[in-house]
């Protein structure tokens, strides 16, 4: 019995020594099965975050917010195709970024909400650069300069200057900076979806005037020379318009600005500008 007990005791000692030997190796950092199956740290496993430009190039498309009802900047031609100055500029920018332009048509009064919801990456819609907008959004280099004009019916003799808007009905998009001019001059604002609706209300006599874009007016008169409207006043200082982005997309903003600069240098911009306005509208 003593021999049996001694034998058992010796066997237990061998097992314990072997176990301790394994623990010592583990503590020393030798590769073991347990160590090799351990999960990697979060720092080691997390992929590098893509910036906005890289993400767009990876997706192969640039998502663009635009109205589609604002000629000649963004509208549908007789065949129903989306076209216009801003549309062609945006398509060329996307091409130079190496991706496809994908347009999302949105009414003007909801276009910034669409940007906030990240439905698109950029807005091309003749958006004026203002201090208020710069608080929340970033802009590319400006690519168009326009002047606000006061438009009335052809036979209207009561309104000759912006000051004459006091107490008059002016058709305006509420989130447009043009509506501020009408409001500051005492006009009663009638909400419209955009330039075309404002002109329809004006020609039908439901409003007295609209403060709108001079370039849009010129295009309308070119397309419909018999339309019964006229310009009676304009703001001397032109406003600059640019592509709009959510803040934090510095690489994308820079890439779009670089594309616009290259388009102006090689004559592509001028070709598009003359097609719609007969002049270089970047000055």
From TrEMBL:
CDD domains for the chain: PBP2_Ngo0372_TcyA
One CC-aspect GO term: cell envelope
Residue numbers spanned by region Disordered: 27-50
Signal peptide (from-to): 1-19
Sequence similarity: Belongs to the bacterial solute-binding protein 3 family.
Residue ranges, compositional bias (Low complexity): 27-49
UniProt source species: Paenibacillus jilunlii
Entries under PROSITE patterns matching the protein: PROKAR_LIPOPROTEIN (PS51257), SBP_BACTERIAL_3 (PS01039)
Keyword Signal: yes
Location in or out of the cell: Cell envelope
Top-level taxonomic group: Bacteria
Listed InterPro entries: SBP_3_CS, Solute-binding_3/MltF_N
Keywords: Signal
Protein name: Amino acid ABC transporter substrate-binding protein
Domain spans labelled Solute-binding protein family 3/N-terminal: 61-280
């Amino acid at each position: 019995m003593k021999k049996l007990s001694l034998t058992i005791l010796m066997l237990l000692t061998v097992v314990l020594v072997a176990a301790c030997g394994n623990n010592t190796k583990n503590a020393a950092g030798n590769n073991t099965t347990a160590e090799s199956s351990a999960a990697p740290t979060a720092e080691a496993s997390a992929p590098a975050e893509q910036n906005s430009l890289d993400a767009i190039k990876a997706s192969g498309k640039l998502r663009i917010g635009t109205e589609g009802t604002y000629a000649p900047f963004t509208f549908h031609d007789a065949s129903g195709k989306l076209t216009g100055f801003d549309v062609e500029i945006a398509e060329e920018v996307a091409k130079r970024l190496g991706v496809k332009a994908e347009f999302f048509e949105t009414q003007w009064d909801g276009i910034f909400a669409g940007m906030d919801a990240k439905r698109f990456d950029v807005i091309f819609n003749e958006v004026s650069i203002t201090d208020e907008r710069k608080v929340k959004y970033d802009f590319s280099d400006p690519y168009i300069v326009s002047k606000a004009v006061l438009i009335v019916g052809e036979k209207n003799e009561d309104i000759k200057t912006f000051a004459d808007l006091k107490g008059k009905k002016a058709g305006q998009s509420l989130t447009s900076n043009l509506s501020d001019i009408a409001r500051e001059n005492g006009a009663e604002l009638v909400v419209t979806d955009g330039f075309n609706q404002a002109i329809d209300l004006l020609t039908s006599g439901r409003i007295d005037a609209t403060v709108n874009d001079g370039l849009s007016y010129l295009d309308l008169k070119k397309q419909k020379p018999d339309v019964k409207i006229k310009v009676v006043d304009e703001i001397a200082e032109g406003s600059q318009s640019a592509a709009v982005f959510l803040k934090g997309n510095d690489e994308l903003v820079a890439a779009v600005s670089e594309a616009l600069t290259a388009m102006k240098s090689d004559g592509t911009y001028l070709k598009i500008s003359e097609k719609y306005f007969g002049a270089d509208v970047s000055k």
